[in-house]
């Protein structure tokens, strides 16, 4: 059993719902274009977390055989339960990217999202190359920096002061193996991949005040503040003195959510938004 990521870095719920917030039914066609997925493919996601990406592929491409692997036990258990809840047939395995439990040339498409920066490249790519079919397609996604967002700011000073009181032991280093795009592409080329390419795409996934559907706007607000609350709970559970400040922090977040929701319902515009820049690299075997 390995629960390092879900207990020390990012909870399964936070990881799942952050991906759900970015990749949804409204913008899924843009994501599928980046993944270059086609119905009938055999597809593998490495580092699938709670399974949102794999579930979306299966939902919209029901004739695909879809697999997801992750080393974190909590992630895989969550993914299996969520998949069953949604009535989808995705195959999830707890497995190590360094030793994938698949035959050579098994998959038409292998993709990952925010995984490559956490591993030495040789560890990241070797097994994916082996299990990708000749002529198969590799897609590597990561969140790129440099985006200035405008999140909702009411009570931020008060909330920030409570977060500052939380005390943590040393956490594992993440993103240790981050590299520039040209380094990644050169590594893929030297490994034998061909038809390499990349793109930067910006996804604005939260801006309720420009949504013309009240139900969808409120869904955005609810999901966004659920994400904030998941993050706070994870930090409370991780902090040495988290319980001491839990009530104060969660009460402030509840007040922040109530203010934002009431502003929307009263017709007062805030135009707060959140977005991500997604770097996508692709290659063929």
Protein model, in words:
With 285 residues, the chain is an alpha/beta fold. The protein has a single domain (4-284), classed as 3-Layer(aba) Sandwich (Rossmann fold), CATH 3.40.50.150. It is built from ten helices and seven strands. Strands 3-2-1-4-5-7-6 form a seven-stranded mixed beta sheet. Helix 7 (156-165) runs antiparallel to helix 10. The longest helix has 25 residues, at 214-238.
Q: What is the structure about, briefly put?
A:
The chain has 285 residues and is α/β, with parallel strands linked by helices. It is built from ten helices and seven strands. The chain has a single domain (4-284), classed as Rossmann fold.
Topology:
Layout: H1 4-9, H2 12-22, H3 28-35, E1 42-46, H4 52-60, E2 65-70, H5 73-86, E3 91-94, E4 107-113, H6 121-131, E5 132-144, H7 156-165, H8 181-191, E6 194-206, H9 214-238, H10 242-266, E7 274-284
Parallel strand pairs: 1-2, 1-4, 2-3, 4-5
Antiparallel strand pairs: 5-7, 6-7
